[in-house]
Specification:
The protein is built from three helices and six strands; from the N terminus they run E-E-H-H-H-E-E-E-E. By secondary structure, the chain is of the alpha+beta class. The protein has a four-stranded antiparallel beta sheet, with helices on one face. Strands 1-2 form a two-stranded antiparallel sheet. The relative contact order is 0.16.
Length: 144
């Protein structure tokens, strides 16, 4: 039997191999986890999965995905992501509703980052809603 060699995965975003760990913190590769949402081949089924995919989009600097998954009523025209900020980890702290049986939901999280070498943490309680059948980010209350 011939031995099959595995070809390296093609990057989903420039510089982000599909085989790398997913930034959202779930035990899957980026290609098997959040990249499928970023490329549009799948849609997050819950508010939490949308929040995780949005965190990953910040980590891989996917501004179009962030804007596409923002509620029309609250969406900015641009984000201007700071290239000096590196997102380093995510802790999901709590959530309410946000499943297939709900039209709204919240997720509270702590997103860890470094900015020009200094560490920081963003704590937010995000609100999500369904818009045309898909989960979108509405707004968030930054905590502490």
């Amino acid at each position: 039997m011939a031995k099959r060699t595995r070809r390296p995965s093609a990057p989903v975003k420039p510089g982000v191999p599909a085989s790398s760990p997913c930034p959202c913190g779930l035990p899957a590769t980026y290609g098997a986890c959040c990249a499928r949402f970023h490329t549009g081949s799948a849609a997050p089924a819950t508010a939490e999965s949308l929040m995780r995919s949005r965190y990953s989009a910040f980590a891989v600097r996917d501004e179009p995905y962030l804007l596409r998954t923002w509620a029309a009523a609250t969406r900015p025209t641009a984000l201007g992501l700071d290239p000096a900020v590196r997102w380093t980890g995510l802790d999901v702290l709590a959530g309410t509703d946000g499943t297939a049986f709900h039209t709204t939901g919240t997720v509270t999280f702590a997103a860890h980052y470094t900015d020009r070498g200094g560490p920081g943490t963003l704590r937010e309680r995000s609100t999500f809603a369904r818009e045309q059948g898909r989960w979108v980010y509405v707004d968030g209350d930054v905590q502490g």
